[in-house]
Specification:
The chain is mostly helical. Helices cover about 40% and strands about 10% of the residues. It folds into 3 domains: about 60 residues, no CATH class; about 200 residues, Rossmann fold, CATH 3.40.50; about 90 residues, no CATH class.
């Protein structure tokens, strides 16, 4: 068995001793050691220690949330308008964006404009929740649906080149908020939680501001989507540069000139995904699915897009981290389940293949099933996976 690791991943796989996330999570800061800060607070774990997300979750308990709310009120007063929209809230109408937009309007008296970058293929429950976000939650919305022909192509090459079929969607989703804010001259964009909640550096949550990494000063044609430059895609296809407009990051100088601020509500209000779910059910008509999501035990998280299960399946292949791991890790941190329960759930569901929408996924990408599996297997890192008797197994299992 080769220990060679791909994608710059740590060759030695370690699991957090407090939750269940591993050091293979992309964009993670997983030290797995007892830091000086942990020792000062009397936290005593094994030599592997805990992950950055758990470290941040401990810090959340020490934050003065009343003071943070006072900061929020000052920010909102600064941006409140006598008429028109006070802020932009990007989202799908899922539990997190439903909570964010509604609480800003109902509790804090803001007038948010919600904006949605459409899913690849709406699920029935996803469309119903999206409609309810406006009809029950009482929120204005702009639904932006990108050129379907181009978006399918970009999703396809992102899958084939990167095993990341969600990358073009994520790009558009990140850009649509400030893009609409710029068009409507609304200088405040509000997102829900920072990814520091899930394992990015906890230092990101020292500020409510979102980073500007999705803005650029590069030449447009040199920007990459799906692992290829726009220049090369145009050369190989009949698409034109104008058709890429929704995917192109705004120039950072334009953002600064218009003084557009992108902020996280989770900096000001203590974030708990399950509590967001309860709030959204009560106030915006959000409904969970009537069946368990494939690859997990959850029924209420990321349920609006038929492509979504394959995004999580691809993270399992590339990083050994499936959908159950992500769901259970945050629920352990928020004390909804124990670590022992999380381990059992991962063993039961994490490796499950999402069959329900598989044919639709192949049709959407315009690929054959054998191409799908050849691509999947080509992205398995040898330090994570071993093939025995025709079946793939993870080299190290969660305990």
């Amino acid at each position: 068995m080769s220990n060679f690791s791909l994608y710059g991943l740590p060759e030695k796989v370690l699991f957090c001793k407090k939750c269940i996330i591993s050091n293979q999570r992309p964009s993670s800061v997983v030290e797995f050691k007892n830091t000086l800060e942990q020792k000062k607070r009397g936290i005593d774990f094994s030599a592997q220690g805990i992950c950055e997300a758990c470290e941040y979750n401990d810090l959340k308990q020490e934050i003065d949330w009343k003071e943070r709310e006072k900061e929020l009120l000052k920010l909102l007063e600064k941006h409140r308008k006598p008429n028109g929209y006070d802020c932009v809230v990007p989202g799908s109408g899922g539990k997190d964006s439903a909570y964010t937009a509604h609480v800003l309007k109902d509790k804090y008296g803001m007038n948010p404009l919600t904006v949605t970058w459409a899913p690849h293929l709406y699920t029935e429950i996803g469309w119903e929740n999206f409609v309810n976000w406006s009809h029950v939650g009482g929120l204005d919305n702009i639904l932006f649906t990108p050129n379907g022909k181009l978006h399918r192509y970009l999703t396809k090459i992102a899958f084939l080149n990167l095993l990341h079929p969600f990358q073009p969607f994520i790009n558009g989703q990140k850009i649509i908020g400030p893009l609409i804010a710029s068009k409507f001259n609304i200088p405040l964009v509000f997102y829900g939680e920072n990814q520091a909640e899930y394992g990015n550096s906890k230092d990101e949550n020292k500020s409510s501001l979102m980073s500007n990494k999705f803005f650029s000063e590069k030449e447009i044609s040199d920007i990459k989507i799906g692992g290829q430059s726009i220049k090369s895609i145009i050369k190989e296809t009949n698409f034109t540069i104008n058709e890429f407009q929704p995917y192109l990051p705004l120039n950072i100088n334009e953002i600064n000139q218009k003084k557009i601020e992108q902020r996280f509500l989770g900096y000001y209000l203590k974030w708990d995904p399950q509590e967001c779910f309860y709030y959204a059910v009560q106030n915006t008509g959000f409904k969970p699915n009537n069946e368990r999501t494939e690859g997990s035990y959850s029924k209420y998280s990321s349920i609006d897009d038929k492509i979504d299960p394959f995004h999580y399946y691809c993270t399992l292949i590339k990083f050994g981290i499936g959908r159950t791991t992500y769901d259970a890790a945050q629920e352990i941190r928020n004390k909804k389940i124990t670590r022992e329960e999380g381990v059992a759930l991962v063993k039961k569901f994490d490796n499950e293949f999402p069959k329900k929408y598989f044919k639709e996924f192949l049709i959407y990408l315009d690929i054959e099933e054998d191409v799908f599996w050849k691509t999947i297997d080509s992205f398995r890192s040898p330090h994570l996976w071993t093939k025995k008797n025709g079946k793939w197994y993870l080299n190290k299992n969660l305990v």
